[in-house]
């Protein structure tokens, strides 16, 4: 069910949930100060209760309502990248809902860049917790139609068009001493974070992710090995030749497939989407392409991986959680 901005604000104030657009992915929003509203998010998503949620705020001055300390490095990062696809995890004030925190001593905050999300937060005077508006472990939505296909028509959706970043925000935790750590890669790179953080003269705790998507997944609540996955089994390939070889093998076995390729070219007898060979474009189109390929109901999805380079880290992270090598 589509709703207007005014209806969305009213619904959220009454303790309801509404799917809202952000620049990254659509979020399933509820008033971040209302525990019974927040529990509805977990129920609809079928998400485990110990997974913390990101609180979306409309103004940097609201940070102090949520945290015990806002270290210089976090101020520098927020001033540089907000509104935008950066989430900061900071020490939480004791009053912050345990439902939002997933019982962690910290709270995750971000100011989204999408004009509709910002209008909702500022006009409504709201702070909303919003995980991606999909069922737990499934593909994140980047359009209102994806939300409806995944969660059903009963969930109110505020349509703000297609998301232009396309994958979830970069998450950085900052402790009271100003030490920071990358918890989830996103389109704001670790290098870009480091440049701003170093200017604020604060140390970096080496992250478990580093520059290599093949490294172990960091211990972050709510990050699962298989996440962001389509219903169709998805296979990942380091190069076009091995993808084509697998396609031939599948054809011989009588199985159908569809492929996502980087750059030009084709795969015999296999419908495919050619994405432009650019990290920003692939991120923007990644989930919508996977949603489209999934809807074809073939036996296997074959995905060509981008090179293992830092600029591709966030896309590699999402793909490695969506399928198998
Ligand atoms: O781009 C995004 O971040 C989107 C849009 C809607 O804003 N939201 C999103 O939410 O990706 P979600 O629930 O899918 O991911 C939230 C993740 C959690 O799974 C967890 O890894 C991390 O944020 N997180 C949240 N609070 C945390 C905390 N207190 N400590 C550590 N990690 C936290
Ligand atoms: Mg999610």
Give an overview in words.
With 325 residues, this protein is an alpha/beta fold. 31% of the residues lie in helices and 16% in strands. It has ten helices and twelve strands. It has an eight-stranded mixed β-sheet, with helices on both faces. A four-stranded parallel β-sheet has the order 9-12-10-11, sandwiched between helices. Helix 1 crosses helix 5 and helix 3 crosses helix 7 (190-199). The structure holds threonylcarbamoyladenylate and magnesium ion.
Range of strand content: 15-25%
Could you estimate the helical fraction of the residues in percent? Answer: 25-40%
**Would you identify the regions where 5 or more consecutive residues have pLDDT less than 50?**
209-218
The name of the CATH architecture of the largest domain is Alpha-Beta Complex
Give the terminus-to-terminus CA distance.
Answer: 38 Å
* Structure class: alpha/beta
Largest sheet geometry? 8 strands, mixed
Q: Which descriptor suits the 3D outline?
A: globular
CATH C-level class of the largest domain is Alpha Beta
**What is the N-to-C succession of helices and strands?**
HEEHEHEHEHEHEEHEHEEHEH
Number of domains: 2
Biggest β-sheet: strands ordered side by side in the sheet: 1-2-6-3-5-4-7-8
Going by CATH, the homologous superfamily of the largest domain would be DHBP synthase
